[in-house]
Amino acid sequence: MHTNEPIGHDYVGKTNTPLKDLEAFVNHHPELKIVLAHWGGGIFMYEMMKEVRERFKNVYYDNAATVFYMIQKFIIL
User: Theoretical Cys-Cys bridge with 3: which of 10, 41, 62, 66, CB 3.0 to 4.6 Å?
Assistant: First the structure.
């Protein structure tokens, strides 16, 4: 499932998928194995909360765009 960060600059391919909508989808489909692109738009950070971690047990994260986040960070610095 395509996701991206909800904040920051706009770019081609950036979608408006609120993290709340991703959470609702996961909650309504607990049996489904789900892969969220681009680190789930940051939703993986919320797995520090026990209740989110338990509900997201079948959620996996694609990290293919990590290099672009890191390159931007180093270029900006």
Answer: 41
Round the average pLDDT of the chain to a whole number and report it. 87
Taking residues 51-66, report their average pLDDT: 92
Q: pTM of this prediction?
A: 0.78
The tokens of 31 are what?
A: 């049996």
Q: Where are the beta strands (DSSP E) in the chain?
A: 34-36, 59-61
Cβ 35 vs Cβ 61: under 8 Å: yes
In the chain, where the domains are located: 19-76
Please count the helices (runs of H) and the strands (runs of E) in the chain.
3, 2
Q: Which two tokens stand for residue 28?
A: 């309504």
